[in-house]
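Retro notes, item 3 of 5
We never archived the inputs for the NAP complex last cycle. Fixing that now. Sequence and ligand:
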Amino acid sequence: MPALGEGEALLEVQYLGVDPTIRGWLDERGNYMPGVKIGECVRSNGVGVIVETNNPAEYPLGRAFMHLTGWQQYCVVESNPFPPITMVPEGVALTDVLGALGHIGITAYVGVLRVARPQPGETFLVSAAASGVGSIAGQIAKMQGARVIGIAGSPEKCAWVVDDLGFDACIDYKTEDVAARLKELAPGGVDVFFDNVGGELLDTVLRRLALRARVVLCGDISTYDVDSPPPPLRNVRYLMGKRARMEGFNTLDHWDHYHEAATQLGEWLAAGKLKTREHVLVGLDRAPEALVRLFKGDHLGKLVVRVAPNSPR
Ligand SMILES: NC(=O)c1ccc[n+]([C@@H]2O[C@H](COP(=O)([O-])OP(=O)(O)OC[C@H]3O[C@@H](n4cnc5c(N)ncnc54)[C@H](OP(=O)(O)O)[C@@H]3O)[C@@H](O)[C@H]2O)c1
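Structure as it came back at the time:
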């Protein structure tokens, strides 16, 4: 256990958020952050409780914080770190700040309301629809009056987003012909495609856009864990014909909207307007298995690892 320096505190990690971006961090080239080197602690979001402090004003004993804790049981936090550390508000479940009330929910919020901006009656398509981001993005689009179609990887996931979350339809991309189903479900084309998957699926949807469609690139999980680069997109020219726009975004650029988003998401959660699900694996030693499961789609709901044996939720 490290000795604490001036202004520092010790966080006992309770839960880790298992996020697709970790796969990019494990590539030596990194992504929007530098790659994690062999021998370093795997970078990851986590939430924990202060168990020792040299800085009671900033880090009071017993208070919970979300931070880039890494895959470890204890984490030293310095004063005013970067990326910023977030105090978990009283009464908020620890795992919610790794999902709906943390960067997952904020990504869906800013991606839908600040980038995609669906209008009432528009057709809003979201891929990885049962993922943390996808499931929340679809529900927010629905609240804006859009007609929401999901794409997900199993009958169980499709049933969840339609029956429990209120999506209008969902396509199982593993067993159905996505292009044919889109033709049936969105004969007038897709107005907004909120894409979490990229690759072949993105290329397929580019042929089914409506006039002045918006394609929002949130993630391209199909390309994170492959040895060779994905094939080039063949259908980019359809953007021209449809006067469509394709735009990527990174939630870090919208962090000034964190409080607005977290407050609104919290209200929707409390009112039952926003529904979420968690998939919890117990034990730090299961973190690698959790990351592998993400890329197989072998989970339903936001995947978290419970690190401390008796963590509160
Ligand atoms: N732009 C940003 O700032 C930002 C911030 C956070 C997250 N993101 C992105 O948002 C997306 C969702 O993240 P999340 O944390 O919400 O995900 P998640 O809950 O961890 O779920 C990931 C899901 O992606 C699907 N998937 C995995 N490999 C796939 C493949 N090859 N083809 C199609 N689907 C695949 C799987 O569902 P199926 O069973 O349906 O295949 C899996 O359950 C990711 O692309 C992530 O990188 C972007």
